[in-house]
């Protein structure tokens, strides 16, 4: 059986999709890239905001339309949107053969086997995840599932459930697997990395996880994503400052800077504490790049509230800001509030934030010109297309790229000199030298970590 997995939404969904691929492979399935070649199409949905829901529905409908061309026989919808809207989707999309919410996707193989679409497991596969793309050197590692924060605007707890931290041994084994699959950079993801371990009784928190990953793997770049400022503690700062393989980068969502709005959002931080934590991080980790996200147009946001947000962004000078307009999500506390900011005002405020941040980012990036740094090469030069990669302060897929004045093999690290900022958010750099190819972990004497064919149900 040939199958394809369509992944929508966040990096955490990417991790889940890689587990589905491994599970289907263990049952004899053959992954294919083109939907036109797939007998089974699995759509991993996102239900975070309205735009994501529409994208998920469009992908499901496109997959279902392929059932009439004689190749695709089965369409499965899984993930967050299904968790929230399963009954409505079943009624509206009868052409979809199976719906599994985020809390029940460990039943994927069971349900497909019951329908005679896949056989019994053929072999134990090496680990819980398989990558099917073309850049295996950049991977994501999920430390926990769900969220306990209860932000008024967020439906994640309704889709992913309460926060559950994964066991440290499982996290380390999965990181080792990713390394042996070619990972040169691993991005740590969760709803809030700093919340890791609070539900466990072994005393292990994020600093211990970072130290274990440094100690038990040779992955050159380990990057922290999605960490609330409330979780920036002295032990965390110490380990990031002292471990050169932990990238000096932080994705820290603030969502707003007006204390009034933050309180209505039910956020755990306030402007003063955010300011202090950013200053503390920059002092402990010189050169750190900090990215954040914010929401404009939240119910009750006044002109004064918005002005405070602009002033705060101007003062703090984050490297990058992802800004969004508020939209009510069914089942959240904010959905019960009066959505009193007109759509036109929301769009105007979004444009003002984006324009302000464009100038701030330009200034922050200009300060990097002339610096020497390592770049992880993503694409080698091909014809007139130059080689490209990412510097430490550029996270995968969200922070722009670096165009190289010189060639280097994809998946390798190169020493470069940053020459100039181009296209607002990209760099141009001169290649000084290229690292030697890494030795495979297995060849270095480490045995392959074999996991059960249950394919990482701990992570679901």
What features would you highlight for this structure?
pyruvate-formate lyase- activating enzyme, 12 helices, OB fold (Dihydrolipoamide Acetyltransferase, E2P), Rossmann fold, 18 strands, six-stranded parallel β-sheet, disordered C terminus, 460 residues
Tell me what the structure shows.
With about 450 residues, the chain is of the alpha/beta class. The chain folds into 3 domains: about 130 residues, Methylthiotransferase, N-terminal domain (Rossmann fold); about 230 residues, Alpha-Beta Horseshoe (pyruvate-formate lyase- activating enzyme), CATH 3.80.30.20; about 60 residues, Nucleic acid-binding proteins (OB fold (Dihydrolipoamide Acetyltransferase, E2P), Beta Barrel), CATH 2.40.50.140. The chain has 12 helices and 18 strands. Strands 6-9-10-11-12-13 form a 6-stranded parallel sheet. A 5-stranded parallel sheet has the order 2-1-3-4-5, sandwiched between helices. Strand 4, helix 3 and strand 5 form a beta-alpha-beta unit. Helix 6 runs parallel beside helix 7 and helix 7 runs parallel beside helix 8. The radius of gyration is 22 Å and the shape is globular. The two termini are about 25 Å apart. The relative contact order is 0.10.
